[in-house]
Specification:
The protein is built from 13 helices and 14 strands. The protein has about 425 residues and is an alpha/beta fold. The chain folds into two domains: about 140 residues, Aspartate Aminotransferase, domain 1, CATH 3.90.1150; about 250 residues, Aspartate Aminotransferase, domain 2, CATH 3.40.640. The longest helix has 20 residues.
């Protein structure tokens, strides 16, 4: 398709280009490189260390008593499961709509992923959760706030308390989000976060665990590879929390280093500004796509403060061929979309029936919803004007493809 010849608008931005690291982060990283003390426990006399300070600052930001910084968001999930005492072969409830690191963490820690159906609003189906908790006897829910969509957290906590289920929150897509003003990650026993490049703070890889439970966090710190140096942590439980477990908790090393912590610390104070900027991009797209026939936007509850770092919509009455044609036409105009209905996983995009290390399950509601689900990244290198242009392209192509005769099968491009 030659857009120049037809006069159609085309978007030329990159959907994978993030903002640069703040200058203060670059300077702090260079200082760490110059003194060479990258390991979190390698500090000079009187030096606190970047990682210990980062933990203290993130705990304060979220209102948590304790915080642990680790090597990745996936490691944070596995560490949380082990800290909660997961046993080999134990079922763990989790969203059917999530990304591969979530069930991967469960399987790697020895658990058995048990997928829970999703709703039209892309959150957890409470009725299916209750039924599967009762039938399996599962005591853990790894709740994935997938693509930044929060369920009714107060209702979920009440439900899980009645079921005897403890919640681990996967907040990889909700750092900076809240439900009725309570930060994401503060409803469960543990909240886990990611600082991978496409998340809300960027250190390439990295993770946090937060909790108010001293025994759980003491186990997590020992698991992360603290040896007997846990006293160097500034956002850790008191010494007595370690006394009974320090000799019996295995070391599964996954510490964060001072270099990544140095890059991250200057990003914490600007997180709220990033959330506000993402909201402007998201709401611009929402306004531009309102009322398009056959295109359904996702309802955001008024109780939710969301982080619009990605955007989802559905094409519920479209055939696979029509969706394939739509994705092909959009990418020809520079707009990269991902589709959760594709038969095969593509790059970061996969779904529960692709993860064959998990037991097969039949999830008809999830299958139906994912078949129509379109997903798009929104990096902060985009401007509101970019978002408006993208919305015009998405709208025009939805109208064109939606009103055209039924096409033959079109395989969508393999967007990375």
């Amino acid at each position: 398709m030659d857009n120049r010849a037809t006069g159609e608008e085309r978007f030329s931005g990159s959907f994978t280009q993030q903002e640069p690291i703040p200058e203060a982060g670059i300077e702090a990283a260079i200082a760490v490189l110059r003194h060479g003390r990258l390991h979190r426990y390698n500090t000079a006399p009187g030096e606190l260390g970047e990682t210990a300070l980062l933990e203290e600052e993130f705990a304060a930001l979220t209102g948590a008593k304790y915080c642990l910084a680790v090597a990745s968001g996936g490691y944070a999930l596995g560490c949380a499961l082990r800290a909660m005492g997961l046993q080999a072969g134990e079922p763990v409830l989790t969203n059917a709509f999530t990304l591969a690191p979530v069930p991967g963490a469960i399987a790697a820690a020895g658990g058995v992923p048990m997928f829970v159906e999703m709703t039209e609003d892309l959150t957890l189906d409470f009725a299916d959760l209750a039924a599967k908790a009762k039938s399996s006897g599962a005591r853990l829910l790894m709740l994935s706030h997938m693509r930044g969509h929060l369920c009714d957290m107060e209702a979920l906590v009440a439900l899980c308390e009645g079921l005897g289920v403890q919640i681990i929150e996967d907040c990889a897509h909700t750092m900076g989000a809240a439900w009725k003003g309570v930060p994401s990650g503060r409803h469960g026993v543990i909240g886990c976060y990611s600082m991978q490049t496409y998340k809300h703070l960027n250190s390439g890889e990295g993770g946090f665990l937060i909790s108010d439970d001293p025994q759980v966090m003491a186990r997590a710190i020992l698991l992360s590879g603290s040896y007997m140096l846990y006293g160097k942590h500034r956002a850790a439980p008191p010494e007595e929390a370690f006394a009974q477990i320090r000799m019996e908790t295995p070391n599964v090393s996954g510490r964060m280093d001072n270099l990544r912590a140095a890059i991250l610390r200057p990003q914490l104070p600007i997180l709220a500004d990033r959330v506000a900027r993402w909201a402007r991009l998201y709401q611009t797209l929402e306004a531009g796509l309102a009322g398009v026939p056959g295109l359904r936007l996702v309802t955001r509850p008024v109780e939710e403060t969301y982080v619009g770092s990605s955007f989802q919509f559905r094409l519920p009455d479209w055939s696979d061929a029509r969706i394939g044609l739509y994705l092909t036409r959009c990418i020809a105009r520079g707009v990269e979309l991902k589709w959760f209905g594709a038969d095969e996983p593509v790059a970061f995009t996969s779904r529960y029936d692709h993860w064959r290390y998990a037991r097969p399950q039949r999830l008809p509601a999830t299958d139906r919803i994912l078949k129509s689900l379109i997903d798009m990244r929104l990096p902060l290198t985009f401007t509101p004007e970019d978002a408006a242009l993208i919305a015009r392209i998405l709208r025009a192509e939805a109208l064109a493809v939606g009103q055209a005769p039924e096409p033959e099968r079109v395989d969508p491009p393999r967007v990375q």
